Amino acid sequence: MSPAEFRDSLADHEAPSGLSAALTAMWWAGAGDWEKAHKIVMDEAGADCAWVHGYLHRAEGDLDNAGYWYRRARRAAATGTLEAEWAEIAAALLTR
């Protein structure tokens, strides 16, 4: 799935099947359901979910918590727009 197809799928009512936990969380975040996205990454381990977790807390405005999760993901805290970060994470995860 391309990043454009992933973004276009946000018009659907459910995330596409077969996505990783991190991508499923990004889909729900993109669809505007922070709680559902957060619940997915809360129960998962790994750098990808930690990266998404950091993004979600940044979107929430909890920068201290976001910083913790970015460090767990071994990523620098994002400084650009949330939209740009969402697109960056989604594109990176789609290429795995």
Topology:
Elements: H1 3-8, H2 21-30, H3 34-42, H4 47-60, H5 63-73, H6 82-94
Written description of the protein model:
- This protein is mainly α and 96 residues long.
- The protein has one domain: Serine Threonine Protein Phosphatase 5, Tetratricopeptide repeat.
- Helices cover 66% and strands 0% of the residues.
- The protein is built from 6 helices and no strands.
- Helix 2 (21-30) runs parallel beside helix 4, helix 4 (47-60) packs antiparallel against helix 5 (63-73) and helix 4 (47-60) packs antiparallel against helix 6 (82-94).
Structure summarized in a few sentences:
By secondary structure, the protein is an all-alpha fold. 66% of the residues lie in helices and 0% in strands. The longest helix is centred in the middle third of the chain and has 14 residues.
CATH topology: Serine Threonine Protein Phosphatase 5, Tetratricopeptide repeat
Let me know the number of strands.
Answer: 0
CATH architecture classification name = Alpha Horseshoe
- From the N-terminal CA to the C-terminal CA, the straight-line distance is 11 Å
User: Shape, please?
Assistant: globular
Task: Provide the β-strand percentage band.
Answer: under 5%
Which class best fits the helix and strand makeup? mainly alpha
Q: What helical percentage do the residues reach?
A: 55-70%
For the record, what CATH class applies? Answer: Mainly Alpha
Helix-strand sequence: HHHHHH
How many domains is the backbone divided into?
Answer: 1
Tally of contiguous helical segments: 6
The pLDDT mean sits at 96
Profile the largest sheet: none
Which ranges are low-confidence, i.e. pLDDT below 50, for 5 or more consecutive residues? none
**Radius of gyration, CA atoms, in whole angstroms:** 12 Å
